[in-house]
Amino acid sequence: MKTSVILTVIGPDRPGLVSAVAARARAAGGNWLESRMAQLAGQFAGVVLLEAEADAADQLEAALRELEGDGLQIQIKRGSELPAPPWHRVMLDLVGHDRPGIVQDITAILSRHGVSVETLDTACKPGSMTGEPMFHAQAQLGVPEDLDLDTLQDALEALANELMVDLELHDPQHEPPEAA
What is the mean pLDDT of residues 62-78? Predict the structure, then answer.
């Protein structure tokens, strides 16, 4: 039987850091399934989903904890086999002038509607014409099956107008296929 092991790691960025994590995982029988990693303000931060045989999970955790001696902060959790909730995936794209609170304002509306943020990627980049900081966000959302997407769209659009951002909510399941 397989066990999921979720690893979070943060520490000073340096060449070879991902390789060190991967080597420890592999040597202890871990299989690397998914990850999200980034260098942020000189620090490396990552989340990794590993899988191991149930009887090897303790050994995998011990091997990964040895990385703490290299100046890394490590957290490890075992995954659970919960049934998938009844929702479908919807994509959210947002672009606007940067200001504090955009993520909190958007996620508050999502939370009120029972929407789960499955992935969230954000960046602040200079605008192409003005050079002013522009906030970009892309999210994959888990939307309850019984939630009317028009209701969610209306709530998000009202906020987008208030924040003066461009926001697009689209459901890949209900979009026509792209022309070849």
Answer: 94
Position 100 in a domain: yes
DSSP state of 176: P
Burial string for 74-100 (b: 16+ CB within 10 Å, else e) reads bebeeeeeeeeeebeebebebebeeee
From the list 169, 3, 167, 157, the residue with the least C-alpha distance to 96 is: 167
The angle at the Cα of 116, spanning 112 to 119, to the nearest 5 degrees, equals 135
49 CB-near residues (< 8 Å, 6+ apart): 4, 5, 6, 7, 32, 33, 34, 35, 79
CATH number of the domain enclosing 58: 3.30.70.260
Coil, helix or strand for 139? strand
Q: Give pLDDT, residue 11.
A: 96
Q: Edge-to-edge strand order for the sheet containing 116-126?
A: 116-126, 133-144, 87-97, 165-170
Residue 112 lies in a domain: yes
Please name which of 29, 69, 73 lies closest in space to residue 50, comparing C-alpha atoms. 29
Residues 119 and 166 in one domain: yes
- Residue 121 tokens read as 């990627």
16 φ/ψ angles, rounded to the nearest 5 degrees: 90, 0
Does this model's pTM top 0.70? My answer is yes
